[in-house]
Fold this sequence. Notes:
Blueprint: H1 3-21, H2 23-26, E1 32-33, E2 39-40, E3 48-51, E4 58-61, E5 85-89, E6 95-99, E7 111-115, E8 120-127, H3 131-139, E9 149-154, H4 157-183, E10 189-195, E11 201-207, H5 215-225, E12 228-233, H6 236-243, H7 254-257, H8 267-272, H9 279-282, H10 297-304, E13 314-316, E14 319-327, E15 332-336, E16 346-349, H11 350-361, H12 398-427, H13 434-437, H14 445-460, H15 463-484, H16 493-510
Parallel strand pairs: 6-9, 11-12
Antiparallel strand pairs: 1-2, 3-4, 5-6, 5-8, 7-8, 7-9, 10-11, 13-14, 14-15, 15-16
Helix pairs in contact: 1-4, 4-5, 12-14, 15-16
Amino acid sequence: MNISYFFVIFTHKLYIYELIGCASALSKIDVITMSCNKKHIPELGRGCCFCDCGDELDAVAVEGCYKLHETNWLEEYPDNIPTDIFEVRFKNTRRSYYQNVNNLELKRGDIVAVEASPGHDIGIISLTGDMVAKQMRRTGFNPYNGEFKKIYRKARPYDIEKWQEAIALEHETMIASRQIAADMGLNMKIGDVEYQGDKIKAIFYYIADERVDFRELIKVFADRFRIRIEMKQIGARQEAGRIGGIGACGRELCCASWMSSFSSVTTNAARMQEISLNPQKLAGQCSKLKCCLMYEYDAYADARRTIPRLREPLQTLDGEYFLVKIDPLAQTMTFSTSKGAMVNLTTLPISRVKEIIALNRAGQKAETLVGEEGKEVVAEPTYRHEEDSITRFDNKSKRSKRSKRRGGKEGKESREEAKPSEEQSNQNGGEPTVEGAAEPRREHGSEQRRRQHRHERRQEQTPKEEHAANSEVGVASAEGEKGEQQPRQRDNRHRGRGHHRQHRHERRQEGGEQTPRNDNPKTE
Length: 524
């Protein structure tokens, strides 16, 4: 494959990654409306927007669209210690601190011309007040020979115009420089180019795994681009911070948003936190181990100091238990009955493990793996309402139980209606009534209410009137049931025969005839 084609593809990817790095900011500020009431696209590398609509070129700083963004949370408070030191940001992650020797009225977002060697550079004020000293202490900044570089003035339209021309040359210069380095056979990769504000000097950022002799390369660059050349070597993490992007967590890369100094990361940090040693998951966009592996390393290291080291399995009367997992933050250890499989897992606190280890060293075996304290049953929480419980949908037979309960209530009501009729039949000489002879069955709500009303009227009547009322109600109910349940006559024929036998029995009683009691109505 042609090397120039490879560099072209890489350049397009680099530009795409740079766009992704400011995706969170551009989602809010796709375009900037300036004083000319026209919309302009911000310059991603330096976090500013240019406007040439008027007579003079103007530039405005854009918040949230540059690397290593800071929040000056002391900006609204008066300065505790007055200072003339300001933080000035340049392209991507390059920042430095300058002294306001001319007592200019500067605020955050002002574009200024600062001292450079040689010439001057154009930058944007990013931090003022007491936060500057805190930031210098955090980054470990030390001025050269104890003296800060100076802030000359606020940028003029001529300075901004020349600065914009220098920015326009950066991408073309980077592509050409890569081609030159490849033709010379140098084992290096030029990742970024940054022009100085006065367009007389450029910084070439490169990555190399070994020492590179680029003395001839500098001569070629100076002859080709007609500028002063400064070569600065950076690492893979610094390159990822300059390009930017979105991490696996869904947020902007730490090296592009707030991290300015990098510490070495080893696989021991992953082992300490019980993280799977999967290279694809442990590596970041720089192809190095993720910096976030070191964020909680100290906490895990302190928690592991209290965990005992086990070289042999725990000995109990039930058998041997092998260590399979450690949770340093929860201070627990998990054991298994099998050495090579996760079988019959039991989680013990550190205190219980130390007790068993002490018994084993004394030549004794513990009675059980879980002590008396471990057998405590945790009470399930009670809820004020059933809707608060997260397990309210786990009982699948709840609906069927509800239907059974409803059917049981209806059967109970029908049995209660049948009891008074049986008592009345016992008072009248053991002769069964219509309600006592008929089997209780499930009825509709309206029919149940009618029968309940009739039952209350029966209780209010005298015993003599009650017997006569029962016979009339029995005839009326038999006729009503016969008329209402005509579609189900085939299923209720035996009930109809019982009603006819009852009528014949009542007529015999009126005539003074005595008939023997027949317990089996089918053989009458």
